[in-house]
Design brief:
single chain; alpha/beta; Rossmann fold; seven-stranded mixed beta sheet; 41% helix
Length: 278
């Protein structure tokens, strides 16, 4: 087996053992929408996607975002390499009465999906867990039709610093000390608590990235960069994810990423980049 394939298989087994992020007990459609409603990004994403769009969530995990986006007349594909995670998502879709989501088991490096067939390609928390994130981005960008949106969420090299410190303390204490407020919030949800602990502190494959690096991915794959969320432009509210950021100054971008150490560090340092396929 090639090295990259062996590493991908390790990640598959990792998520098979503890699908991420999981669902709270006694979940409901109203609760799912309420959770998403607390996320400004989820609201903006929903606003940015047309009501009749064809959407794929690549690396969907247990498919919470895919289920949230399955509104109006959207057709949503939830794709992941972990079959147990997909089964949890499929079970939730049946329980919540969401019939417009289709579940596909596939590896994004050789995704069994038709190129240029989606209006929106969304992938959050996935590329940085692949052996070659730049090549993996190329694989998902090809799924987008010309004019379609590409939205990817990856760990930021600056914003990930607090987690790296917490992880070092956890490992030195053999996980007797884990300074993580999300873990404390999930004391009554052991499965979701374990999934978060494993995903953030024990993952076998992890990379971190800068905005400039992701911009290079976009350019090499025929994707016009629009903006990040949170924005790298000070004072830019970013209320429309499909609009280019105004006055996107390089120095300001680096300063914004340093600020993310405090604003994004609590939840692992994930940021989103949005582009449009040329």
């Amino acid at each position: 087996m090639p090295i990259a394939d062996a590493r991908t298989e390790t990640v598959r087994r990792f998520y098979d053992a503890a699908p991420f992020p999981g669902y709270p007990a006694r979940d409901s459609l109203a609760a799912l929408y309420a959770r998403a409603g607390r996320s400004r990004f989820a609201q903006l994403l929903d606003d940015a996607i047309p009501a009749d769009a064809r959407v794929v969530d690549v690396g969907c995990g247990t498919a919470q975002m895919a289920l949230y986006l399955a509104r109006a007349d959207r057709r949503v594909i939830a794709a992941d390499l972990s079959l147990p995670a997909l089964r949890l998502g499929q079970s939730a879709a049946r329980r919540l009465g969401l019939a417009s989501v289709q579940f596909v088991e596939t590896d994004l490096s050789c995704a069994g999906l038709r190129p240029a067939s989606f209006d929106v390609v969304f992938s959050s928390g996935v590329l940085h867990h692949t052996p070659n994130p730049a090549a993996s981005f190329g694989s998902i960008a090809r799924l987008t039709r010309p004019g379609g949106l590409v939205i990817v969420g990856v760990y930021n090299a600056f914003a990930r610093v607090p987690l790296r410190v917490r992880r070092a303390i956890a490992r030195l204490s053999r996980f007797r000390i884990v300074l993580d407020s999300i873990l404390r919030d999930r004391l009554d949800e052991p499965e979701r608590r374990t999934a978060w602990l494993r995903d953030q502190y024990q993952h076998p494959e992890e990379h971190c990235h800068t905005v400039a690096e992701v911009k290079r991915w976009f350019e090499r794959n025929g994707v016009t960069y629009l903006r990040t969320y949170p924005s790298t432009v000070f004072g830019d509210e970013g209320c429309d994810l499909t609009m280019p950021a105004v006055d996107d100054w390089v120095v300001e971008g680096w300063l914004a990423q340093i600020e993310w150490i405090w604003t994004l560090g609590r939840e692992g340092g994930l940021f989103f980049s949005i582009g449009r396929r040329r």
